[in-house]
Amino acid sequence: MLGLGFTALLRLAWLAATVPILVVSLPIRPVGFLHRMIMGFAARGKTMMNSSTKFTVPQRYFLHFYWWSLALTTSLALSTWFYAYRKMVPLASESLSYSTVASHLIGGSHIFSSHKVSSTPMEHKYQVWRTVFVLLLMEVQVFRRLYETLNVFHYSPSARMHFLGYLTGLLYYTGAPLSLGISCASEALSYARDQIAEFIVKGRDRMPDLQIDWLELLKPLLYLGWCQWIGAVIFLWGWLHQLRCHAILGSLRENKGADEYVIPYGDWFRYVSCPHYLAEIIIYFGILVASGGSDITIWLLFMFVVSNLTFAAAETHRWYHHKFENYPKTRRAIIPFVY
């Protein structure tokens, strides 16, 4: 009962966070006051340099997002993986065809219904191992972002972001791993809690030895369906391009303390002003595909990423055109040749 309530609460929270940003990101000119209010809240870095610094924090505080998300994602991934290894093996070598995004899009799913069809024990096993898989993808993404914040980006002392934007970032990097693990997080954490309680009551000497077969720990991931591996390929494609685009952006500031900006070139900068945002959308689309697309919470997560980054890209694109008279005319904001 507690798990169902928490799931519903998380979905409502994502819906409340997503809808306002979707509205202001639509290709309709927003009301001036609303646009300025949202921009003041969402602006950061170079798009905020000419704005008031009231209620702002240094942009380098991005580091807090990734430390926190790495800790949370690691805890969820390890507890779910431990639960899957102890309770959800063996796993059949034949992948399940029902766990595909396509099946959900053509009506074979109840992702928008509060009444889910009960899954079989085998389907539930695959669901738990899929959760492990997508949490590992999230772990790879967050770890790289943490590394880049420490070693690649050199934030200007004047680069700041709104305090509400900072709180939204913390909320997002809390909600993202929880969204990915929500389908079985409660049972995995309950199992881990019971194991800890048993250890406390019995003591180490009376507990059975924990022997881990590393092949059995990894093998179930290989038995997942084509949907998971296609999602992983999409994720890797976006991940590698974001890595490259971030390296280009990080290399532009030769003097780490200077407030100087130049036009970036290379990789997807040939097509759009914010290829790192485009890559992030591709990354989360890969995670969505790998998840099987069976949970509305993950769809809300993806919608939030798309709407938020589209809005941020439009503002950055506008800033580039205002800042540089010779800015490439053929570049779009975030979608090549379109927008």
UniProtKB/TrEMBL annotation:
Give the pathway listed in the UniProt entry for this protein.
Protein modification; protein glycosylation
Gene3D superfamilies reported for this sequence: 1.20.120.1630
Topology of the protein relative to the lipid bilayer:
Multi-pass membrane protein
Q: Where in the cell is it found?
A: Endomembrane system
Gene Ontology annotations for the cellular component aspect, listed alphabetically: endomembrane system
Q: Is the keyword Magnesium in the record?
A: no
Q: Membrane-spanning regions, if any?
A: 65-84, 126-143, 163-182, 221-240
**Superkingdom as given in the UniProt entry:** Eukaryota
Going by the UniProt record, its keywords in alphabetical order are:
Membrane, Transmembrane, Transmembrane helix
Q: Which residue numbers delimit the 3-oxo-5-alpha-steroid 4-dehydrogenase C-terminal domain?
A: 225-339
* A molecular function (GO) term: oxidoreductase activity, acting on the CH-CH group of donors
Q: Is rRNA-binding among the key words of this record?
A: no
Name its GO BP terms in alphabetical order. dolichol-linked oligosaccharide biosynthetic process; lipid metabolic process
Task: List the PANTHER family hit by this protein, alphabetically.
Answer: DFG10 PROTEIN (PTHR14624), POLYPRENOL REDUCTASE (PTHR14624:SF0)
| Protein name according to UniProt | 3-oxo-5-alpha-steroid 4-dehydrogenase C-terminal domain-containing protein
Q: Please give the organism.
A: Musa acuminata subsp. malaccensis
Query: What high-level taxonomic lineage is stated for the organism?
Result: Eukaryota, Viridiplantae, Streptophyta, Embryophyta, Tracheophyta
